[in-house]
């Protein structure tokens, strides 16, 4: 299997990384940190390893008498205390060189994250990515995990993508990112940070799957019986979506030819400049365990199981990739898709896009964490759907409205100007978002 490097940037990126790597370790039978501290053996492959395909995510070293498996992962935050938390959690599973922390956070300010403090560690981060890429036989893609509301995920994330688009120009780069939820802002300036952070998806050909915390909290409350979810709970859901949607290029699939990270992105982005993707997932909770494949398909395209807060069906669909895990057959997929295609309100994009729906099936059984919040059984059939739909404009417009409300009053503009940018930079940020809305908008009116 070709390799994927995963880079976690900022507080949200690193915390999602905690859940994602717990899941990957469990899936590949690699011992977790707690075990390391007690018996001082590092990242051993358990004899009961579920799969032999860990090499897409880990590289092997043999510093001690036993082999070690080191994640092809980097955790970076300008706030070193957050990285320290992840380091404590994973012990010496993670290479300490790949856990990079700065002196202070970016104070929810894109400009700090991108142009001032974020610059300080960027050469180190790039150098570590280069070293990891040299451990790979054939690097198939880079997954970045971050949020676009704070200063590091947005600002340092943008700087990183900018640099990677030069240093790793031929490697597909995908973002798995938490977009701001107006009802749940940590800070009101999230729309400003988000606008500028959209640049890599407009200029550099990066693709992005957007999650939002409002939808994730709703899933916890409505399906999982968790009325006061912790970040770890919602991050576990994101981790399952990421791990399932890339299963086919990590551990193989039903396709005759191996599926690569680039293939996944190409399937989902049939037209250049349409690279913003919407995630959904089934099943959540024991009630959804019982459902037929047809019912599951319908849920995957309904707001109840969508991991961002708008209705997929309120847009035109350009492409949709159904990634299954578990004992799923092509018949299951047929049943699922037949029901989806008959859903009321479903609307396809231009007729010259030949196949809106694609599917990958990874027969390898689903892995659940010991403290799994999904409320399903391990033998369950999982379905992670990623859709390219014009409904994304609902989210972009909502953020643009909040941007305008603040900018009209020049609210918080001085925070950014104080970091050295000109007022013009705000108009530039807004124009990025406006352009993306217009691009998707053209398809809506066709
Ligand atoms: N899903 C999820 N969202 C988070 C998490 N932590 C923070 N957020 C959200 O992400 C946004 C803030 O981004 P952070 O990642 O904390 O900020 P940062 O990138 O570390 O940037 P600075 O702290 O400004 O340096 C807010 O919208 C938070 O609600 C998390 O662990 N999971
Ligand atoms: Mg932070």
Instruction: Examine the coordinates and then state which fold CATH places here, giving the name of the CATH topology.
Output: Rossmann fold
Through-space gap between termini: 41 Å
The Rg value, from CA coordinates, equals: 21 Å
The CATH superfamily name is Tubulin/FtsZ, GTPase domain
Q: How many separate helices?
A: 19
With strands numbered from the N-terminus, the spatial order across the biggest sheet is 5-4-1-6-7-8-9-12-10-11
Main beta sheet, described? 10 strands, mixed
For the record, the CATH class is Alpha Beta
Count up the domains.
Answer: 1
CATH architecture annotation = 3-Layer(aba) Sandwich
Bound molecules: guanosine-5'-triphosphate, magnesium ion
Principal-axis shape? globular
Q: Structural class, from helix and strand content?
A: alpha/beta
Determine the fraction of residues in helical runs and give it as a percent range.
Answer: 40-55%
Strand content: 15-25%
Uncertain residue ranges? 33-51
Write down how many β-strands occur, each being a DSSP E stretch of 2 or more residues: 12
Average residue pLDDT: 90
InterPro entries: Alpha_tubulin, Tub_FtsZ_C, Tubulin, Tubulin/FtsZ_2-layer-sand-dom, Tubulin/FtsZ_GTPase_sf, Tubulin_C, Tubulin_CS, Tubulin_FtsZ_GTPase
GO molecular function, one term: structural constituent of cytoskeleton
Family: Belongs to the tubulin family.
Keywords: GTP-binding, Hydrolase, Microtubule, Nucleotide-binding
């Amino acid at each position: 299997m070709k390799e994927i490097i995963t880079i976690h940037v900022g507080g949200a990126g690193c915390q999602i990384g905690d859940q994602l790597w717990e899941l990957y370790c469990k899936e590949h039978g690699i011992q977790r940190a707690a075990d390391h501290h007690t018996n001082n053996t590092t990242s051993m492959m358990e004899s009961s390893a579920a799969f032999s395909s860990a090499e897409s995510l880990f590289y092997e070293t043999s510093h001690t008498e036993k082999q070690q498996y080191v994640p092809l992962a980097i955790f970076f935050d300008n706030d070193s205390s957050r990285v320290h938390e992840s380091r404590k959690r994973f012990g010496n599973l993670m290479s300490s060189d790949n856990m990079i922390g700065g002196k202070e956070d970016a104070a929810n300010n894109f400009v700090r994250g991108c142009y001032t403090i974020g610059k300080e560690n960027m050469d180190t981060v790039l150098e570590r990515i280069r070293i990891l890429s040299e451990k790979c036989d054939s690097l198939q893609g880079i997954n970045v995990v971050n949020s676009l509301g704070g200063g590091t995920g947005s600002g340092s994330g943008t700087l990183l993508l900018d640099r990677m688009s030069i240093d790793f120009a031929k490697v597909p780069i995908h973002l798995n990112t938490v977009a701001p939820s107006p009802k749940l802002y940590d800070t009101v300036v999230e729309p400003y940070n988000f606008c500028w952070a959209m640049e890599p998806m407009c200029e550099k050909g990066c693709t992005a799957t957007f999650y939002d915390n409002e939808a994730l909290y709703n899933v916890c409350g409505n399906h999982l019986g968790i009325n006061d979810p912790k970040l770890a709970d919602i991050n576990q859901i994101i981790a399952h979506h990421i791990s399932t949607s890339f299963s086919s290029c990590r551990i193989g699939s039903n396709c005759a030819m191996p599926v690569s990270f680039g293939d996944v992105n190409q399937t989902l982005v049939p037209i250049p400049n349409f690279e913003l993707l919407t995630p959904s997932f089934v099943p959540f909770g024991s009630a959804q365990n019982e459902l037929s494949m047809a019912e599951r398909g319908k849920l995957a395209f309904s707001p109840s199981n969508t991991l961002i807060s708008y209705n997929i069906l309120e847009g035109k669909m350009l492409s949709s990739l159904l990634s299954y895990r578990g004992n799923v057959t092509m018949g299951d997929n047929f049943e699922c898709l037949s029901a989806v295609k008959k859903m009321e309100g479903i609307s396809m994009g231009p007729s010259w896009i030949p196949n809106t729906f694609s599917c990958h099936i990874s027969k390898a059984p689903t892995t659940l964490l010991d403290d799994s919040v999904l409320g399903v059984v391990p033998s369950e059939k999982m379905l992670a759907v990623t859709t390219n739909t014009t409904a994304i404009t609902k989210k972009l417009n909502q953020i643009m409205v909040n941007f305008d409300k603040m900018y009209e009053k020049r609210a918080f503009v001085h925070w950014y100007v104080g970091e050295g940018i000109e007022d013009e930079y705000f108009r530039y940020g807004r124009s990025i978002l406006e352009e993306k809305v217009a691009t998707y908008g053209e398809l809506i009116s066709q």
